Amino acid sequence: MPVWTDTHCHLDAPEFDADRAAVVERARAAGVVGLVLPAVEAAHFDTVRALALAHDAVYALGIHPLYVERAADADLQRLHDALHACRGDPRLVAVGEIGLDHFVPGLDHDVQQHCYIAQLKLARDAGLPVILHVRRSADALLAGLRRVEVPGGIAHAFNASDEQAQRFVERGFRLGFGGAMSFERALQIRRLAASLPESVPVLETDAPDIPPQWLYRNAAERAAGASSRNEPAELPRIAQTLADLRGWSLAQTAAITTANACAALPRLAALV
Ligand SMILES: [Zn+2]
Questions:
Q1: Centre of ligand 1 from the C-alpha of residue 247, in Å
Q2: What does the pLDDT read at residue 86?
Q3: Are 192 and 165 a contacting pair, CB within 8 Å?
Q4: Which of 13, 44, 90, 237 sits between 20 and 30 A of 207, alpha carbons compared?
Q5: How much is the average pLDDT of 208-215?
Q6: In this predicted model, what pLDDT tens digit does every residue of 41-56 receive, in sequence order?
């Protein structure tokens, strides 16, 4: 059975409170052996670490750009302290999820930038790769990576130009592809997934978010109570899209993307 790695799963999200253990069980049954759990805020650092331990997963610690406004400098200090306290933990694979969101209206770009650069420095000092949130912010993120050199990582839910993709790759990054790739209208994402060098794509669900096309519900359906929750057990079916785009078998797709995930997050290699 192919070994899959979901490089981005928010298992700590409240959407999983009712059935978290069953969600992990379904993922394992589907062959999803590698599970990377990025944190989004300091209040969740302990939870994410405990979930990784309990479910034989790995984790990342960081403050997500949509959470930085309610975070204080004290939270950056908490991240610093947690990275120090967990520095010998083989399950701590990265600093993340960090980055910049220039899509959601009304966010304070200066606060985001301050927290992004501060967290890049913490990653550099800890010798850890980063898991990046990229949303209309590729150039600004790349500028930060030129200022503060980190050991690569993953640009997650990647959707940017060919040239921007190339620049992340030159900096040692892998690019994350998930449910968005399953929509036929996602032309640029599908083109990147099909054409990037074999060593670049990694797979992710971003569960419970970014439902693939077969789980997608429109606003009216959601208002009527339909769930569009994504989960890591969907990864092999999402991977079928990548396999079709590349002309790879599913077994090849699993082997290549898991190897790429381990290259991006070296500590993951011990666990998959
Ligand atoms: Zn995320």
A1: 28
A2: 95
A3: yes
A4: 90
A5: 94
A6: 999 999 999 999 999 9
212 in Cβ contact with 179 (< 8 Å): yes
In 3D space, the residue among 72, 5, 21, 8 whose CA is nearest the CA of residue 42 turns out to be 72
Rg (CA), the chain: 17
CA–CA separation, 119 and 116 (whole Å): 5
Span from the CA of 206 to the centroid of ligand 1 (angstroms): 5
Q: How far apart are the first and last CA of the chain?
A: 13
CA–centroid distance, 14 to ligand 1, in Å, is: 14
Contact 269/262 with Cβ under 8 angstroms? yes
pLDDT exceeds 80 at position 71: no
CA dist., res. 168 & res. 187, Å (int): 20
The whole model's pTM is what?
A: 0.96
